[in-house]
Design a protein that fits this description.
mainly alpha; 4 helices; about 0% strand; rod-shaped
């Protein structure tokens, strides 16, 4: 086996038809978990975007002598500060 699952072990995971055979309560729990995972992922992205936006605003407000202290030119700081919040 060497760490690889045999096909028979994966079959229940790949069989979407088996979802119809499950009790209604179990399906609701599955959908609840999926929804919570998606909501948590979305919240994490919002947090990242808010942090980027705040940091870029702070960078925009730095004086040139402080930019030199952190090793950035005013041009580099301006390019970074003008990026949209979703850009890395």
């Amino acid at each position: 086996m060497n760490g690889i699952l045999e096909r028979s072990a994966c079959d229940p995971l790949l069989d979407l038809g088996s979802l119809r055979a499950r009790p209604r309560g179990e399906l609701l729990r599955i959908w609840w978990r999926v929804g919570c995972a998606l909501l948590a992922a979305w919240a994490a992205w919002v947090l990242v975007w808010a942090t980027r936006s705040r940091q870029r605003q702070d960078l925009r407000d730095l004086d040139p002598h402080l930019l030199r202290d952190i090793g950035l030119t005013t041009g580099q700081a301006a390019r970074e500060a003008h990026k949209c919040f979703w850009q890395e």
